[in-house]
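Database export, one record per block. Field names are fixed; values are copied verbatim from the stored entry.
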Amino acid sequence: MDLAGFLAGIDWNAFLLAFLNFVLSYFHIQLPG
C-alpha cells in the first residue's frame, strides 16, 4: 500500500483523540469533566 492510500485510510478523528489523550497524560494535564 502506498503512503497516500495509507493516510486516506486512517480514521483521523480517532487518531487525533488518541494523540491528544497521550499528550495530555504525558504532561499530566487533567481536563475537567
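Remark 1: The chain has a mean pLDDT of 83.
Remark 2: DSSP finds two helices and no strands in the chain.
End of record.
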